[in-house]
Amino acid sequence: MLGTPSLARAQSSSNAFKLRYVLSTSLYGTLPIADIAAQAAPLGCEGLDIWAGRWGNQREQVEAMGSEAFTALLKKHGTRVHCYTCMDTGMVKAEPPMRAMRGFGGDTVIALLSGTGGDKDKKGSDLRKAVQSQVEKLKPIIAAAGEVGAKLAIENHSGGLLAAPDAIRMMADAIPEKHVGLALAPYHLPQDAALLGRLVGDVAPRIHYFYAWQHGDGSGEIPTPQQVTQLPGVGPLDFKPMRASL
User: Fold this and answer.
1) What is the structure's pLDDT at 123?
2) pTM of the full predicted structure?
């Protein structure tokens, strides 16, 4: 889960369902991982979601400093690695960073399905076949994740196979392994609170990660006066139906 400290404080008053928070390094551009790690615990986040490439180069920073220095850094700031987001490799090629992540105690890899742009408009039986084809391609990484005790979370994206709610439901049903699930990003789906609440209810047992991000600053061609920060409760999308379903 990813959210804000104000939401974390609100959750603390309830003994029922509680959200768990991690801090994504992509929110910081290319700032030093040492500065980001220092903010995780004070923000109420249980660990770090480390990105690489053009989304944030913190995985490369970790590789440059070495495992011993990075482990010491995590200990100093009282935080840990929760997951690696591997948009640069895609899920099929995510085994090397997955194994590195496990060395730091992280347990989840988040990535896209690569090369599925031509599938985004498929429906019905054609869509189901495309989902099954992708599941076949994922079998090696699914097996590797099972071997090292990692979870895989496949992110839906507006330009790929999982661009529509039906495709997400099919993917949730198509993979029997319980260590494989979804990184659900409402950001990339129709901004309809009721529809998203139903979708979350349908696939909730397979959600390993949830992006509580709004459309806002950085979301393409949004005019400056209409830009808002990409945080729940700030933009127009109502997250309450999705939280209720969770």
Assistant:
1) 93
2) 0.89
